[in-house]
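2024-03-11 09:14:02 DEBUG pipeline.ingest accepted 1 chain
2024-03-11 09:14:02 DEBUG pipeline.ingest length=519
2024-03-11 09:14:03 DEBUG pipeline.predict start
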Amino acid sequence: LLLARASTRQRELAVRLALGSSRSRMTRQMLTESLVLALPGGLAGVAIARLAIDLMNANKPAWLLRYPEISMDLPVLALTFSVTLLTGLFFGAAPAFAAARIRIFETLKGASGASGGGRRSGRLRQSLVVAELGVSLVLLIGAGLLARSFLKLTRVELGFLPERLLTLCTNLTPSLYPTGTKQMRFYDDVLARIKRLPMVRRAAVSTDLPLSGEFPFSGLRFQVEGRAPLPRAQWPSASLTVVSREFFATLEMPVRRGRAFDSQDTPRSADAIVVNEAFARRVFPGEDPIGRRIAKGPNGSGGWTIAGVVSNIRAAELAAEPAPLIYRCTCQSGDRDVFFGRMALLVRTEGDPRTAVHAVEGQVYAQDRNQPVFDVMTMEQRVEQSLAPPRFQLVLIGGFAVLAMILAAAGVYGVTSYLVAQRTREIGIRMAMGARRADVLLLVMGESIVLVLAAVVAGLGGAWALTRYGKTLLYGVTALDGPTFAVTPLVLAATVLIASLGPARRAARVDPMTALRDE
């Protein structure tokens, strides 16, 4: 805008110089005018940033609560405010230097107050608009990729039913419960108490909680019985979770093959395990895993028989792909001499699980009031918590993209309006020579379309170069997602055309006689 305005002030500046103004004074005037825009603009930006920070602190996700509160950082504030002032000086310097080089006689003799400036200044203005639109497109593509990724996450198959499911954790004191046998006696009694509550349908315990942010114990290496022995370093591995009998029924996890744990699994029965679909696909591709045995020891010791295959669940977070997982039952003998540490209680209720929190906690305390209960949440809250980081990233990048689009639209509108005003005489001549209003409309809009096409080429190139570094933020979409790269340029084009429509319509309503008489 400053360049467009300065290019039409050549005659005015020449008159000032002819009347005795010094060139250095003219240069200072141009720089001062640009700073008059930059300074209040920077102050307004500080105020907006203050409001935005308060809004972010009030709505930041739970995973950010462990970090210090977001605040206005003085070094960052000083840097950005300095950049604001330098931007004003930089864009005021070009017209200032042009003013210092004005040739008074030639300008007064040949220039017109309505001149739009030379071809070079026109190309510079167009290049700046293209750069602004290109940056907007890069941000818009980034926001589009995050939006597509977020939608994919919201539709992820959890592998269980999260509705009406209450979760909470306990961590038994090692000195009071030193062995797995004593711990499981505690949990068996607690589960019996909880199941007697009228609002409870089922209850179970597990060493790991779905969508808890923590991955199950991994690195359990084994070999498949009946296959050629392999060096231990080449043994397949899987994660291990220990659960009670009703774990799968409580979560309403589908059993794909075989069976879940039931009454036939006791301390005296053969050790049975249930595996997830990821385990079956990786360890037994194209085979039926039911009845197959895996061994933890080099000589076949510690063998487990696969009794069933269940659906994959999202163990730690929604974006983490399911890994091979083995489920062991607490009812089997081998694990009752192991210290489990923290255990999770899962309770399926008849109605809203939040109404059962007090009653369920009360049953734990009734068994032993000295054992802590913590991390109490419904499973739906855990799902929302897992969606919080990508949602926060989407809001941030999306907010920047929207701001960039608004600035770009304002820039296009301002430059187009100003240039239309300066071309009033030209438009009047065109209409006097027979041009229709539709022709004038297409003339102005066509220039905007050319700018959009150039910006799309530049923006797509920039997005192709930069989005590859944001692959870790995406789920279910690639950094070069086709629909996103196809739709976002259309959104940008529509925004620019809407921004230039007003000035184009004003140009089409120019009265040729009035325009020529005024000139």
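2024-03-11 09:14:41 DEBUG pipeline.report The longest strand covers residues 303-310.
2024-03-11 09:14:41 DEBUG pipeline.predict end
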